[in-house]
Amino acid sequence: MDPAVPLPAGLVSRLATARHVVALTGAGVSAESGVPTFRDAQTGLWARFRPEELATPEAFEADPAMIWSWYEWRRELMAAAAPNPGHRALAEFETLLPEFTLITQNIDGLHAQAGSRRVIEFHGNLFVNRCLAGCDGPVDVPRPCPEPPRCPRCGAWLRPGVVWFGEAIPIEALQTAKAATDRCEVFLTIGTSALVQPAAGLALRAHDCGAMVAEINIAPTGLNGVAQYRLAAPSGELLPQLLDAVRRRRESRS
Ligand code: BV8
Fold it and tell me: Model's pTM, two decimal places?
């Protein structure tokens, strides 16, 4: 199949010789799995809300049942989705390259389902629930669960194990992501609008540490000044082609 877009020789050869590569993914990587992106217009009864209004501790505190229902709707959408060729290509990069760190903003668990083992879930995971009052450890919740459940230990509400706006990124995820970003030779930013901080700042951090930054996105983002290469194609088409080109280049060197 012809490449979705021409693959820059400079990017392919750099990836073929790199010891450590980082990939940051956003909702665009799951779009071809049928999961609406974070800023796609919401549908149905959620159409009149912006996600940023709902994904906050204040919104949950004000109306736990409504916010739980929003996440329950998204959980069912994500549970029905399967990894696409883009997820699978990223899992294969992990075995092909000496060191490959995947940082995802997505909460759908599709990278792990595709076989990625080293995944930093920067914004948490929608299939993990925990006690709002801070009891230790995740709490299993049967699916579907239309009503907001209570913590079996203390009776407080359970909440989705995701990072809401205004909440800190879990310290281990943040530190591991920053350390990988500081030492990588190539930083791929894939399927993200690069609007949410501190995730969006990682590409600039990599650039300032001397890494080659390449962006894969169907639309332009604010990263244009940082990315040396911009590949305007769907990640589900482009990533398998990039993987194949890098694999062939590595084999021709050995
Ligand atoms: C925090 C989980 C502080 C919940 C999410 C500066 C510094 C620090 C913070 C801030 C700052 N400025 C503003 C802030 C506050 C805020 C923020 O960034 N606000 C934004 C709106 C301006 N940040 C925070 O609150 C963060 N916390 O800073 O805490 C702190 C510190 C110490 C102590 C206390 C507090 C927490 C942010 C995390 C929020 N949680 N998700 C949930 O999902 O409900 S963020 C949410 O946005 C999702 O995780 C999503 O992944 C993420 C980013 O969106 P994208 O993934 O990029 O998705 P989007 O739809 O936007 O774009 C999709 C892209 O894909 C598009 O570009 C499209 O063109 C492309 N695409 C589509 N199809 C394809 C494709 N590309 C390729 N192929 C395709 N097929």
Answer: 0.96
